Amino acid sequence: MPLTDFGADELARYRPESPAPHDFDAFWRRTLDEARAQGGAVKAERVTERFRLHTVEVDDVRFPGWNGEPVAAWLLRPRGAEGPLPVVVTYLGYCAGRGLPTEHLFWSAAGYAQLVVDSRGQGHDTPDRTQGDGTQWVEGFMTRGIDSPENHYHRRLITDCARAVDAVADLPGLDAGRIVVTGGSQGGGLALAVAGLLGERVAAVMPDVPFLCHFRQAVQIAGDGPYRELVNYLRWHSRDKVEQTFATLDYLDGVHFAQRATAPALFGVALMDPVCPPATVYAAFNHYVGEDLTMTVWPFADHSSGCGSTPPTQLEWLAERGLAPER
Amino acid sequence: MPLTDFGADELARYRPESPAPHDFDAFWRRTLDEARAQGGAVKAERVTERFRLHTVEVDDVRFPGWNGEPVAAWLLRPRGAEGPLPVVVTYLGYCAGRGLPTEHLFWSAAGYAQLVVDSRGQGHDTPDRTQGDGTQWVEGFMTRGIDSPENHYHRRLITDCARAVDAVADLPGLDAGRIVVTGGSQGGGLALAVAGLLGERVAAVMPDVPFLCHFRQAVQIAGDGPYRELVNYLRWHSRDKVEQTFATLDYLDGVHFAQRATAPALFGVALMDPVCPPATVYAAFNHYVGEDLTMTVWPFADHSSGCGSTPPTQLEWLAERGLAPER
Amino acid sequence: MPLTDFGADELARYRPESPAPHDFDAFWRRTLDEARAQGGAVKAERVTERFRLHTVEVDDVRFPGWNGEPVAAWLLRPRGAEGPLPVVVTYLGYCAGRGLPTEHLFWSAAGYAQLVVDSRGQGHDTPDRTQGDGTQWVEGFMTRGIDSPENHYHRRLITDCARAVDAVADLPGLDAGRIVVTGGSQGGGLALAVAGLLGERVAAVMPDVPFLCHFRQAVQIAGDGPYRELVNYLRWHSRDKVEQTFATLDYLDGVHFAQRATAPALFGVALMDPVCPPATVYAAFNHYVGEDLTMTVWPFADHSSGCGSTPPTQLEWLAERGLAPER
Amino acid sequence: MPLTDFGADELARYRPESPAPHDFDAFWRRTLDEARAQGGAVKAERVTERFRLHTVEVDDVRFPGWNGEPVAAWLLRPRGAEGPLPVVVTYLGYCAGRGLPTEHLFWSAAGYAQLVVDSRGQGHDTPDRTQGDGTQWVEGFMTRGIDSPENHYHRRLITDCARAVDAVADLPGLDAGRIVVTGGSQGGGLALAVAGLLGERVAAVMPDVPFLCHFRQAVQIAGDGPYRELVNYLRWHSRDKVEQTFATLDYLDGVHFAQRATAPALFGVALMDPVCPPATVYAAFNHYVGEDLTMTVWPFADHSSGCGSTPPTQLEWLAERGLAPER
Amino acid sequence: MPLTDFGADELARYRPESPAPHDFDAFWRRTLDEARAQGGAVKAERVTERFRLHTVEVDDVRFPGWNGEPVAAWLLRPRGAEGPLPVVVTYLGYCAGRGLPTEHLFWSAAGYAQLVVDSRGQGHDTPDRTQGDGTQWVEGFMTRGIDSPENHYHRRLITDCARAVDAVADLPGLDAGRIVVTGGSQGGGLALAVAGLLGERVAAVMPDVPFLCHFRQAVQIAGDGPYRELVNYLRWHSRDKVEQTFATLDYLDGVHFAQRATAPALFGVALMDPVCPPATVYAAFNHYVGEDLTMTVWPFADHSSGCGSTPPTQLEWLAERGLAPER
Amino acid sequence: MPLTDFGADELARYRPESPAPHDFDAFWRRTLDEARAQGGAVKAERVTERFRLHTVEVDDVRFPGWNGEPVAAWLLRPRGAEGPLPVVVTYLGYCAGRGLPTEHLFWSAAGYAQLVVDSRGQGHDTPDRTQGDGTQWVEGFMTRGIDSPENHYHRRLITDCARAVDAVADLPGLDAGRIVVTGGSQGGGLALAVAGLLGERVAAVMPDVPFLCHFRQAVQIAGDGPYRELVNYLRWHSRDKVEQTFATLDYLDGVHFAQRATAPALFGVALMDPVCPPATVYAAFNHYVGEDLTMTVWPFADHSSGCGSTPPTQLEWLAERGLAPER
Questions:
Q1: Which residues of chain B carry a pLDDT beneath 50?
Q2: Does E2 sit within 8 Å of B220, measured CB to CB?
Q3: Pairing state between β C265-270 and C293-298
């Protein structure tokens, strides 16, 4: 496939107007406050033996997320490592769940603790029971609760993701001062959201080809992937719900989180990506507030971006910022 | 596209073994009993003027469905017609809702009353709030509650559909002795289910290219459409949930409803249909108990089957059975 | 699919130069004069009973079209309505014919008379015997008679459509002062042509995603649909017939009819429509002469545009202009 | 793509029942008699210079075909060759015309005369004016006149092709005792038809991946190509015209011509051909009457069969049968 | 996509005749003898630091393969583990190379040593300089040297793979008595080949959806993937090289290696896999000589088979056979 | 498909900056010098009888190409023609070889000698033994030797093509003062390269939809065809090899050859060509040095451009320039 939207030069300058709703900060403050007020305990069960692992210690974690509901996560760390360890919190791509811990062996092999956060409803282990009153929520999660920011699925999921960072303090041997949030696609959008919400509590953010950015443009240019769910929905509702839909999405837009995020940031973008078009990634990148800001460009890649090259690139970038684990 | 599975001769003989679960009848008796026990009133609001209609009287109906929850429906009838009128109850195709009453003008023009039953979650006006604890319910409704027949979406939807027939008695001017149930695709599967559940209360059933039939075979041959949701789900769960999945679906299978249904029946099947493969339609047809049984074969059609020719064909068939409205 | 061509703002300003041939008006005057000179009677056969309809009176009509040849139409009206009734004349999409009257129940239910005009050659009931001497007329109707405006298929079809309006005067109970012409896709192009040809005899025109507009641009941007027939033809004839081809099409171009049409007009356009790209629709819209001019924009729709929402929208718009039937 | 229908062994045995209509021979005798009775002159204009050719002499021929109408052909022969020369009469694939003589240089280079016969309506130079009264003849030629064998397009085209053989006698320097008919796809079906109609006047027939064979099976298995036009037509007419359609096609079926053809025959078949499925080719081959019968099998080819290898293969086969031109 | 070829029952019985060439064993004995005769040293460079890994020790290995040429491999083992360790030798899928060691962290985390063997020409680090005299080797590796078993690419690659097992003895800390060979797709075919060649030196073999099996059938049913390269090649050479091509491939066919392999074996197969159709996998499985033979069936999977579930399944199966590493 | 990149007007002005490497001329001088220094004889074997041709004399030629390796070619000329004849040297499209001489009958029929030059590796008869040390050369020839201009496949192929012109002098009866080089797609790129390398020894050049032009842009806009091989390669190497890749391709770019070529030139371009996008063709055209420069534009064609119309167009253009053969 050819270039998705613009060439590299034009993208570097692409910074569209995108004001956040006036009560954006209040909305999220209230959302997090309410979730925290629900309380709930962080639980961890040692499952290393079940997976027959030798070099990695694995805990099957449940932490309280949105509405205090238990959210599943895997906690992996190098076996026998003395802490406190820097922690990589990983959020997941669209419609993937946390899977098995054996699918997440990179960061612990590199000496980090890693918390892999399940996506409610999308993975095996974390139900998303609440779904509000809306209907015609076909085809997945993008239109689940599209009628209001209060009800939208990603409000709940972002809350879970922020609460995952809260949970780090309750897990022994982790260094809450060195929390890195990351993920690809939906996971990248979630990492960006958490960085925008939690400020200095996030030591670094690494969103790779992030989804959930610049919705108003994304629905007009994405040729594939979950932005298309919104197009399909709006097709049936274009007489009466377009503005309401975007009003909801404005509370979930990575551009608005970027306008608030200050942690050192390493973005990734693929110029032939029809799922998360580069213009939408640059829209967030070019609004990002933090000054330690790097873009990894994959000029010929589609949505698979850097594949296996991405984690070592991130590892190197973290080390340059003093976030490597001690030997 | 060529023939989907078998030629016409082989299909006519295709009657695979397909025993229903031993407690199938008990399950459904309990399900309907519980729904009816919830009670709830049937409400109808006259909306003819809102739609500027002259020859049709339209009511916006809410009747109590699963768990007593209000289900939306349109009731259309010829304006000024003296009742009691025979009633066509129409169920809808996958991911369509009741839409506007102006999209359903055939049966009232032919002198019938018609009740168009919304599909919970799929249409605008009927939420499906309950979704149980399961996860990985991506891509729509087929895997919503797949963990058990208690929780499956189609248990709730079939219950709504049966309760729609109950509601007829509460709507003035309708003849509860002449209730015809019909629909295409998902609507056909629902009509078949209702015929299997309500016995002689259904005067005739007309399932066109019915979905929800012979799941164990359907997932192996369907090349397109919602049976593929099950394949995608089973792909990720084939180590541990295949039998549980089919055990759930066995309670929803049109073959098993056909094994109990006795009303005069007019099926439709399209031999080049990759969505509801003909073998799955014949599996239900060849198990159908009732003896007044007709198959309309569209040998060159895909899932659109007879298009605009289907309703007049059904009208004629009903008249031959004494189910025409009086002039 | 993403946006087909331009964004909403640019489309609103898109008004390309497109001069009609100098003898455009003479060509069409002569064409209509010749057709009318052929005479021929309008015939109507009552077929209500055949279709078992109760609320609608249906006539199977033949009226004289191009060359005086009989053109089939359905005339539907509310049973028992006293006239004279306002009339909606409906033209059809590409390669559809008038089908069955039971497929056209909206306007009569709303109190209008409706005349559904068959498309010669495309439907069951109206042959297009004449096809001139040209060859390589593969793939349908766009290149049938492409060698000259005299011979082109759409000259004959447009003439039929204009003559359908003439026929209204010969059908009892219709109000020739309230004739509305409409249609989608090809039907929209035909409605626009009739509005351009018949001036004040048309009380309103409602072209939805009209085809047959701005051919010179359409062949360069349409990704699907019958404009592609022209591309396929020109591919084989690009050495010698490009200009002749467009010279022929200039006599059939909706932009040129729009430059002459004055009736109140309600257009529809879909911004993700690869069949009738929005730029071609706006080219006609922005050249439209009449001042009572409305565009319904479906920003996320493909060629199916507003689906079932379109007729109620049109009904409302007509009522606002005093064109509602009496109660 | 995998194998289209059967493996090689099963194909070799595939000989389905396929009785010709009882008046098949009478129909065609009358058809040819009427065409011949129309008379008409064979004309040839020397155009070698226009195409700047040195080694080939080219005539632009018009011969009388169906209804005596002039059919275009190119006659190519080696420049300066003394006759009488054996003649290869070439019929063309679907929707190709005779094109330019420079696209047909093989047989004259090999010492033969070649007559390339235009397909009425499909090429530039031979109109097909008559098209009868039928309608819904969308998408090309397969359904043009489908209502009866009298009116079907291929009745006219086959007549042209037979009359092309008649015309050989009127062209100087050709040996009417050594006429070979050939073609690929539609051209192969036409060659087979001519061999079945003209008996011993044809010295050899070489149908490559012939179209127009075993229609009743072809419409059920062809995945692509013009057999699909019939499927699309029958989809809309499956209630009332299936048998009439096949009754028409029975007069045009290569299987029935094969049941009458006796000339030495070289067929070609491609086992991965979705356009002219191998089962349909073998159906004709296995019914072929003549005993000098060869099949060239391309086990891995699609509809392009042997590409550039086919003509040398045919040349060799002709030489083995004493049909090589003299040096 | 529906089932690729047969249902589960028929597959379980599918054991087609497939005799190996009479000199198959001699061919391979000579091939391995010659490679070993070339000698060459095994070299290993410690690169753990370069990849910033903590729990894994990584060596960048070069061992002598075909013609003594250096073949790249990664050797990973748990850091600080005392040997000798059981070793998993991993071969790679088509057109993947060994990539980065960080993409292969499973087996070392489970306490094994793992040797990841680069595929010559396909990966970054191992050229395939020799390519013989053949031409038309388009589209990759399947037709590189197709003219004879001596020259075929996979002769060289299989030799590399067998020599990788030889190399284990030269790497310190590994237990040459517990060598397990495995891989998916091409890697599965290679593992099977090594098991067939090296007999008891292989302690277990785990081919997942193996490629390179039952070529004569595979080319007729594979709908996608590298078997299609052979179809494309044979399309152009079907007149003269079909038998030569299969004669070459007979020396590389997994069915023939299975007829010689005795190690405990765990196969994987996906019933909706168009790349390595299940019939070809069962052809090898049902010919396998060894008696400790297990098939993991993924009934709804395509070529991605069990995804992340496969390695834990294999780990468990190895443990049951006493091949788990010591704690 | 719609227009590939720009409209006709913009293309006519499209002349991007594209400086050749500073040592471009030296590189190629050295390359040709070395090839010529290898010497080698031109051999021709008369094969007319083998192909049973009458009007054409055919020689199976081997001439020394890159590294003195024998390159296959067909030499065709009108039988009995007295020389010296003007010669058309034809280069071939991607992954086609010279095939059979019977596939190349146009130019000899028009009185020219024609030399059809095999493409090493791509055709049957000319191996490309050398392939250097690079790896990951999947999918054909574009990345074979991509590591340096020294090693790239097209360096060898272009050298063969230039040496084909040298060989003309060694073949009797040909006029080395009237050598025309031509080809389509890859053949067009090769013809352009030879024109740039050999200056006045080329009497005319006719590149049709040339490939190998303006690589840096081509990889960003080509939607299909072999430029995509480069995209696939760069996807995996975008961290470290992008600039090296383009540095290699700069030595093979038709834009740079055009900057040196002076012979009269007839280009062809297709505006709907996704394989060789029109912008890349115009980039070479608008940099072409020679002043007798013509573009044939096929505004509605895809990569098949003018099909059978191209050779007569070229024939005419040559005649206008005094390059017609004598009668």
A1: none
A2: yes
A3: parallel
Distance from CA of A73 to the nearest CA of B (A): 15
Instruction: Please give the Cα distance from F110 to F168 (Å, whole number).
Output: 19
CA distance F83 to A35: 93
Taking the C-alpha atoms of residue B143 and residue B146, their distance in angstroms, rounded to an integer, is: 5
Query: Can you spell out the DSSP letters for C177-194?
Result: EEEEEEEETHHHHHHHHH
**Which of D52, D319, D325 shows the shortest C-beta gap to F110?**
D52
- Structural domain contains residue C160: yes
Measure C280 CA to nearest chain A CA, in Å.
19
**CB count in 10 Å sphere of residue F31:** 20
Domain membership flag for residue B223: yes
Does residue D84 sit within a domain?
yes
Q: What share of chain B is helix, strand, coil (3-state, %, to 5)?
A: 35, 20, 45
Mind listing the pLDDT tens digit for each residue in A242-284?
A: 999 999 999 999 999 999 999 999 999 999 999 999 999 999 9
User: Which of A52, A314, A327 should be substituted to probe chain E, the one whose Cβ sees the most E Cβ atoms within 10 Å?
Assistant: A52
Report the CATH number at residue D34.
3.40.50.1820
Mutate to test the interface with B, among E9, E11, E300, E305 (most CBs of B within 10 A): E300
CB A98 within 8 A of CB A62: no
Please report which helix (H) or strand (E) contains residue E57, including its range: strand E56-64
Residue E327 is assigned to a structural domain of this protein: no
Q: Indicate the pairing of strand A265-270 with strand A174-184.
A: unpaired
**Residues of D engaging E, defined by a Cβ cutoff of 8 Å:** 1-3, 7, 272, 298-302, 306-307, 309, 313
- Give the residue-averaged pLDDT of D198-219: 97
Closest residue to B298, CB basis, from D220, D223, D238: D238
| Mean pLDDT of the D35-62 span | 96
Catalytic residue status for C5: no
CA dist., res. B114 & res. C326, Å (int): 26
Judge whether C284 and C269 are in contact, CB under 8 Å.
no
Whole-number Å distance between alpha carbons of B169 and B165: 8
Residue given tokens 């059978």 in the structure block: F308
Identify the closest residue of chain F to E121 by CA–CA distance. Answer: F135
ipTM of the complex, rounded to two decimals: 0.94
- In this predicted model, what pLDDT tens digit does every residue of D149-185 receive, in sequence order? 999 999 999 999 999 999 998 999 999 999 999 999 9
Contacts of residue A240, Cβ cutoff 8 Å, sequence gap at least 6: none
3-class DSSP state of E187: helix
Total domain count, chain E: 1
Q: Report phi then psi at E226, rounded to 5.
A: -70, -20
The reply to whether residue E7 touches residue B220, judged by beta carbons under 8 angstroms, is yes
- Please indicate whether residue D148 is annotated as part of the active site: no
Q: Indicate if the pLDDT at residue D137 is higher than 60.
A: no
Taking a C-beta distance cutoff of 8 angstroms, is the pair E20, E250 a contact?
yes
Beta carbons of A300 and F231 less than 8 Å apart: yes
Could you list the beta-strand ranges (E) of chain F.
43-46, 56-64, 70-78, 85-91, 113-117, 174-184, 204-208, 265-270, 293-298
Q: Count Cα atoms within 13 angstroms, Cβ side, for E242.
A: 12
**Rounded to the nearest 5 degrees, what angle is found at the Cα of E194, between the Cα atoms of E192 and E199?**
100
Q: Which pLDDT score, from 0 to 100, does residue D133 have?
A: 56
Task: Give the closest residue to A136 by CA, choosing from A219, A226, A243, A234.
Answer: A234
pTM: 0.95
DSSP characters over A10-64: HHHH-----PPPTTHHHHHHHHHHHHHHT----EEEE-TTTTT-SSEEEEEEEEE
Q: Which domain holds residue A212?
A: 8-320
Secondary structure class of E23 (helix, strand, coil): coil
Among B274-283, C47-56, E97-106, E235-244, whose mean pLDDT is lowest? E235-244
3-state class (DSSP) for residue C74: strand
